[in-house]
Amino acid sequence: MSLRRDAQTDALFRSILALESVEECYQYFEDLCTVKEIRDLAQRLEVARLLSGGCSYQQAGEKTGASSATIGRVKRCLNYGAGGYTLILDRMKESDEEGRDADE
Questions:
Q1: Out of 3.40.50.620, 1.20.1600.10, 1.10.1270.10, 1.10.730.10, which CATH number does the structure's domain 34-103 have?
Q2: What are the pLDDT digits (tens) for 69-89?
Q3: To 10 degrees, the CA torsion angle through 6, 79, 36, 65?
C-alpha cells in the first residue's frame, strides 16, 4: 500500500524539509505529534537499523522493546517497501562516517 500523494501531505513533508537543526525538530515535532508517536517512530527507525545490521527479530525486540508486530512490519518495509528506511539508514551511516573522518 503506497502513501497517497496530496497537497496536505506535500505541505507536511515540505515543512519537515524546512527544519534546519535537531533542536528545531524537537520544537516542531513536540507541537506536531504526541510523545508516544515520536517514540514509536524513533523505535521503528532503531528496529530498522538493527535488522539491517544483521540483528535477529529477538535481538531487535530485546534491544528496543518493540512488539513482534512492529518488528515484522519494519522487516517487511525493509524487504518490500518503498526504500525509505534504506535511503535514510545509508545517509545516516555516511553522515556518521563523515563526522568520524572530520574528528580524525
A1: 1.10.1270.10
A2: 999 999 999 999 999 999 999
A3: 180
